[in-house]
Input
Amino acid sequence: MLEAKPEIPTYSLPGPQGARVVAIEDAIDTTGTKTAPIVVKHAKGLMLEDVDGNVFLDFTSGMVTATGHCHPQVVNAIAQQAQQWIFINSPDFYSPLQAEVVQRLAKLVPGLEARRVFMCNSGTEANEAAIKATRWNKPARKRLIGFLGAFHGRTMGSNALTASKVAQRARFTPNLPDVHHLPYATCYRCPYKMTYPNCDIWCARILEELYFKQLIPPDEVSAIFVEPILGEGGYIVPPPEFVKIIRDIAQRYGIAYVDDEVQAGMGKTGKMLAIEHHGVTANCTSLGKALGSGVAVAAQVLDADLDFGAHGAHSNTFGGNGIALAAVKATLDVIEEQRLVERAAELGEYFIGRLRELQGRHDAIGDVRGKGLMLAVDFVTSRATREPDTAFRDRVLARCFRHGLMLLPCGFSAIRFTPALVVDRAQIDHAIAVLDTSIREA
Ligand SMILES: Cc1ncc(COP(=O)(O)O)c(C=O)c1O
Output
């Protein structure tokens, strides 16, 4: 029943049943980030059916449900675990399930043998744990460094590092103090108006050459937070040297390097973790989103010497609950058994090739970028000026929704494609056809 049809359907959104639900949620939910009035009844693989019987191809949820909606192995694992135990106060007691999961997560992250893992419930909580662990271990270092365009979460600590849109910060000041931001390596629209590689990666070197001399005493910095590929900020892939240089500076100044893999991790980029594309390792790694195939779960994987040194310094309630652990275990199994990382690399090549074909036909597409199945197209008013065309992007998105293709925006003028890693070529072809039509209509 749930199949992407070869013809391109058009839906009225919301339908009559959906409209009732939208009215209730809009009246009661706090204002958040709702993007389209799609009212879900059920979802399987990459397909989703709404309460009015409309069927959508979902190229948004792979960010979280990388194994596809309701993967049978994950569903089964959750159901079985629910019969055994759901909650045992995992931060206080022990279980073979948590022992296995933390062992596997410690091994999954490249780097030192000696690792500690903190199980938690969301990406922001994983990043808060990194802020607190590095502060606990480097108490004289009160400053943090992040990047413009980055998204690390919305609680008051991680929100101080988030700098992707002004709306995420407006009226919330003061956040955590002494958090400094540098422009991220954004070659398509270089903030320094330079050109790669003649720029000599100034966006990374400026940290040591100017900031550490004029603004930030490096021995006061506990951690630097880096997304290996910018997610919410626009699916921006930095040039190969960028992460290496920042990593090297962090190491030389005793600053913990925090790799935020919440969006880019778990196979989406064609490597299990996106930092593997850069050939470096991190001191702290934040995992979330796709870790539990849609179940709320996240983890902070730390070098053992960054562990909290005192009983009770940091903990939580729901970290390591039975459902989350079972979901993580099953997700890791599915990713391994079905070789989804390799699949993301292979299908990503095909997908980006098809997006580039589309770029050849539509001048409005200025840039096509990404790695594996974490891809984006960026819309411009002119290819010469590369000026972002937010209004056009929004019209394309609206047309895609009407034609049954679910997509999300990112950055100021890009659309991101983050299908589940179980996507197939026919689904990619269908998405390309819908996008093509939608761009012509917009
Ligand atoms: C890179 C990155 N870090 C952290 C977060 C925050 O995760 P959560 O919404 O689970 O708190 C996000 C969410 O989009 C993210 O993309």
The mean pLDDT is 97. The first strand starts at residue 40 and ends at 44. The radius of gyration is 22 Å. Residues 122-124, 127, 151-153, 227, 231-232, 260, 262-263, 288 surround pyridoxal-5'-phosphate (CB under 6 Å).
